[in-house]
């Protein structure tokens, strides 16, 4: 479905302007072996401030998930906000797909930015990546915050919770990476405590096509 005007593309443009106003700039780093990482980085890194790395979860690019908090963090931290592989402008031609590989690529990105020490916050899937970074790079990762990330969840825990029950990888993908408005609404039902009152199909199609 092709539209002359895209609300989602317009929102992306607004978020880019918002990130720039907060003191960040867009940067793309070639890590080699067909891996490209995009990241929002400080326009000028201040050595007197600690570094805070924000790692997004499933959804669109990182801007959508952290735009509301960036202005609160940039006065006190050097803030770095990467797009994980296969989100936003980051991608790889390599076959690896694990959160361990994502963590290694994010750390390689930070090394390319000459950042040697950082605190990390990971949201949802990003929490698994943050946890993996802390486990692999203990000397470089300081404080770690995890939001909505069940890194310690065991099968027995799921039995007492209302969780999405699936039997195949395809079922998981169909919900986490929705390709229809119906699946997008299902994802919202599982991931939002306070859900939007209305989600028109044309808006969801726009989000799917742009994101």
From TrEMBL:
The lineage of its organism: Eukaryota, Viridiplantae, Streptophyta, Embryophyta, Tracheophyta. PANTHER family: ALPHA_BETA-HYDROLASES SUPERFAMILY PROTEIN, SI:DKEY-122A22.2. It comes from the Eukaryota. Signal peptide: none annotated. This is AB hydrolase-1 domain-containing protein. InterPro entries: AB_hydrolase_1 (IPR000073), AB_hydrolase_fold (IPR029058), Meta-cleavage_hydrolase (IPR052370). Residues 50-149 form the AB hydrolase-1 domain. Pfam families: Abhydrolase_1.
């Amino acid at each position: 479905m092709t539209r002359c005007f895209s609300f989602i593309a317009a929102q992306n443009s607004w978020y880019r302007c918002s990130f720039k106003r907060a003191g960040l700039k867009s940067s793309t780093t070639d890590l080699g072996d067909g891996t490209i990482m995009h990241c929002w980085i400080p326009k000028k890194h201040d050595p007197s401030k600690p570094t805070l790395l924000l790692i997004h979860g499933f959804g669109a690019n990182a801007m959508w998930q952290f735009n509301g908090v960036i202005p609160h963090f940039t006065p006190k931290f050097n803030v770095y906000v990467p797009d994980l592989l296969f989100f936003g402008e980051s991608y790889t031609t390599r076959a690896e797909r694990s959160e361990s590989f994502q963590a290694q690529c994010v750390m390689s990105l930070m090394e390319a930015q000459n950042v040697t020490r950082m605190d990390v916050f990971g949201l949802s899937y990003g929490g698994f990546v943050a946890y993996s970074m802390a486990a692999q790079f203990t000397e470089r990762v300081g404080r770690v915050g995890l939001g909505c990330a069940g890194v310690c969840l065991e099968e027995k825990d799921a039995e007492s919770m209302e969780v999405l029950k699936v039997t195949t990888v395809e079922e998981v993908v169909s919900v986490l990476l929705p390709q229809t408005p119906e699946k997008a609404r299902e994802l919202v039902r599982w991931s939002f405590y306070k859900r939007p009152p209305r989600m028109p199909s044309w808006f969801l199609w726009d989000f799917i096509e742009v994101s």
